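A reminder from the course coordinator: this example appears on the midterm review sheet, so study it carefully.

Given structure:
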């Protein structure tokens, strides 16, 4: 297994997927020998010491050069890459996870270089792998539609969720997180990397309209954008300044995992208006913490949210404002969404994801014997 993404100090979606899925695969005790490939030494507590590992530092193009070299000389029975990119040289029995094809829908939300690489690498992965895992039915349909990948070659395997997340009710813990991030009032919360595909410029615009409406909103309502700065994030900051919201929109930067449960639990609502998602783990994280969710109805998000969120067209600012008004002013609706959220998250677990993934790996191993 290519475990290089799992060692990231600041993990976001793909890195968390790699870490949690690999851990769950190792925990299955299915009678297989696993070997993990790293581009840097992993932290001692990341994986069990008993697991075989190959640490192969390399300055650039680690996947296509160093991992390819490893595959030329010591290829495993089956190679699994959980983070999009197969090495150029790989065994016939290779499996890769493709998380989304959002760059095809919104190329303007990526740099030219990113667009070119994503188009080439995803097409290469979809054709070169013996099997492809997709995070959602939406991603499977995109692979079939845009790259002609045979439908039967793609297995939809839903990621799991962090099952340690739960509502935080301790007033001291909630107050500590509020103080740490300077949250002086009730707040709406977004969690994720700050980049254009997350549709945060429109969220800021909707927040400005919300504050100017005649709805009975909580006093001193804030919008909290929690996450590290990604590519092309400057437009978000410019919109905040243009609308005069520098005192009402709080950018926390990257939020460590330890702070996330209290930050989510203390929010009036979690808002996720993304233009395109391969899955959308933050939606499940919010539900696990008992926070009502407003999210977009694009791509995979209806699969993730089910009936447990208010879903809106991500291109419709007025619809987003209307949904926020509903969730902020209707206590019965909030409670209904919270209860549905607790039921919805039971559909997703890393142990189930690992079992389904292992089945694909085993099938590939047998098919090419």
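Designed residues:
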């Amino acid at each position: 297994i290519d475990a290089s993404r799992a060692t990231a100090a600041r993990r976001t979606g793909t890195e968390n997927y790699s870490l949690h899925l690999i851990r769950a695969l190792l925990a299955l005790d299915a009678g297989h020998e696993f070997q993990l490939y790293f581009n840097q030494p992993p932290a001692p507590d990341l994986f069990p010491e008993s697991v075989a590992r190959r640490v192969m530092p390399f300055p650039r193009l680690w996947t296509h050069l160093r991992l390819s070299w490893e595959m030329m000389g010591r290829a495993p029975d089956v190679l699994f890459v959980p983070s999009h990119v197969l090495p150029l040289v790989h065994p016939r029995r290779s499996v890769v996870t493709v998380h989304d094809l959002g760059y095809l829908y919104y190329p303007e939300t990526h740099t030219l270089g990113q667009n070119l690489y994503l188009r080439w690498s995803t097409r290469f992965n979809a054709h070169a792998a013996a099997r492809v895992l997709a995070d959602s039915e939406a991603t499977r349909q995109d692979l079939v539609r845009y790259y002609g990948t045979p439908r039967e070659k793609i297995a939809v395997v839903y990621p799991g969720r962090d099952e340690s997340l739960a509502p935080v009710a301790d007033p001291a813990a909630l107050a500590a997180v509020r103080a740490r991030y300077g949250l002086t009032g009730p707040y709406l919360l977004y969690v994720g990397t700050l980049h254009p595909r997350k549709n945060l410029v429109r969220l800021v615009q909707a927040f400005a309209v919300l504050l100017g409406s005649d709805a009975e909103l909580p006093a001193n309502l804030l919008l909290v954008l929690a996450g590290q700065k990604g590519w092309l994030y400057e437009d978000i900051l410019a919109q905040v300044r243009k609308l005069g919201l520098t005192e009402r929109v709080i950018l926390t930067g990257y939020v460590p995992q330890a702070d996330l449960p209290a930050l989510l639990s203390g929010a009036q609502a979690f808002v996720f208006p993304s233009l395109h998602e391969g899955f959308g783990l933050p939606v499940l994280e919010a539900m696990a913490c008992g926070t009502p969710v407003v999210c977009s109805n694009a791509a995979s998000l209806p699969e993730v949210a089910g009936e447990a969120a208010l879903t809106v067209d991500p291109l419709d600012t007025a619809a987003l404002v209307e949904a926020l008004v509903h969730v902020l002013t209707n206590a019965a609706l909030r409670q209904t969404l919270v209860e549905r959220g607790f039921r919805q998250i039971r559909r997703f677990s890393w142990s189930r994801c690992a079992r389904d993934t292992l089945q694909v790996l085993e099938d590939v191993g047998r098919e090419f014997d």
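The chain is about 40% helix and 15% strand. The radius of gyration is 21 Å.
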